[in-house]
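name: query_chain
kind: protein
chains: 1
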Amino acid sequence: MRRGRTRNAAFALVMALVWLAAPGVYAKSDRESSVAPPPPRTETIPKHKAGYVWAPGYWSWNERGHKHVWVPGRLLKDKRGARWVPDQWDEKDGRYHFTEGHWEPRPAGAASRR
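structure:
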């Protein structure tokens, strides 16, 4: 019995580390760049059931390669009372600033968009 618990705990630890490391694949280590991102790619939004929202793909900055890298869109589990604000780049004074996608409170009475 103890061996099973140890194995389950080890598995849970490994999965937690994988989950924490996964964002590093698309890490946005540099939130600012002098290089403009390319135009967004056209994506086909997959059919999905209620309770999910589409987060469109975006260009991430790869510091090591000094270039933009496309991160494909993905389905996210909807959060009640919130709306998804997509990842985006904004230009200011010749510099491009990245804002990571996030959930923000949906105004009271606003209809849900799916």
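note: Residues 9 and 15 are 10 Å apart (CA to CA).
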